[in-house]
Protein: Dehydrogenase
Organism: Curtobacterium pusillum
Amino acid sequence: MGSTVSERPLRVGVVGVGNISQQYFEHLPALPELALTAVADLDVERARSVGADQGVRGVSVDELLAADDVDVVLDLTIPAAHAEVTTRVLEAGKHVYGEKPLALSTAEAAPVLALAADRGLRVGCAPDTVLGTGIQTARAAIDHGLVGDPVGAAVSWSAPGHELWHPAPAFYYQPGGGPLFDMGPYYLTSLVQFFGPVARVGGSATRSTRERTIATGPFAGAPIPVDVDTHVVAVLEHEGGVVSTVTVSFEVWATRAPLFEVHGTAGSLAVPDPNRFSDRVSIATADDREWRELPVAAGYADAGRGYGLADMAHAIATDRPHRATGELAFHVLEVMEAIGRAAREHTVVEVRSRVERPALVPADATPGSW
C-alpha cells in the first residue's frame, strides 16, 4: 500500500514549476489537508529558486520521488510528460494528482490506472475548477429539476490563440494541446458532471494556414509550428440521451456565441465558465423566459487550484472516493480521442469507458468537511 494520512496533512511534492504552479502555490497554504514539502523541476536551479520562495526544498525529480516526506506528487509538467511522470510517482509508492490531460492517449493512460489500482494508490486529475460554486450550483439546479428533464447543452469556447499572452506557448500546438485537449477537459468534465458519461460522438475539425508567432516574453517573434487541429466541433450523445454540442477554437477573433448553456423541458441555464471556480449561474424558465441569477447552492466557496488535491487528501484519510478521479479524466480523454477520430474518419465513434458522476459538493463545504 502507498502513503496514507490520518491526523497529519498529506505532504505534497510538486514536479514542474512553470506558469501554472503559481496558481497552486497561491492556494495550498489555505488548505489544511495539504502541506507543501518540496518542489522539483528538470531545471534544478529553477526548482531551488522556487523552493526558496515557498520556504521548502528545491530538488531534482529523482530526489523528490525518493523523499520520505512526500506522500503525494502534484504533477504540473507538460502534457507529453504526464504518463511518464505519473508512472514514476506510482512506482515510488506515492499518490499522484496531475494537470489535465491525464495522458496523451488512452493507450498511455490505461497502464497508469492499472498500476495505481495494483499498488493501492490514488490518481487524481484536473480540472478541479468544476468543484467550485459555479459548475456545482449549475449541477444542483439540474439535479433538482429546475430546468425539467435535460434535453441538450451547447458549448462555444474560442480565442485567437494562446501565443498572444503565453511566453512559451509552443506546447499548446503539439499533441496534447490544441483547443480540444487544452480547453476541452473543462467543458467535457462539466458535461459528465451534469449528464453522466458520453456514449458516442461525432465531430469535424480543421486548422488554418495562419502563421503563428509568440507575442510576448523573451521569445517574442519566434514562429510556432502547428501540429494539431485548431478548430474543433463535436456532437456528444450522453448515455442518458442528452445531446451536447461542443465547439472549441484557437481561430476566433471575436464572438457573440453563448459560452455554455443547458436546455431542458422546463427551462434553460446559462452555465459559467468552467475554467473559473465561482461565477454565477442564471436560469430562464418556461414560465417567464427572463434570465435571473440563481443563489449559490453547491460547491467549494472561494476555491482555487489545489482544491481537487485537498478533496483527494480528505478522501484518502476517510477511505472515500475523491471527486477529480483518474477514471473521470480517462473517460474525458477517451471522449477527446473519439472526437479526433470522428473528425478524421467522418464517422460516429462509440465511447467504451463509463464513469460514475462524482458526488455533488454540498453548499458551504470545505475539502475536509463533506
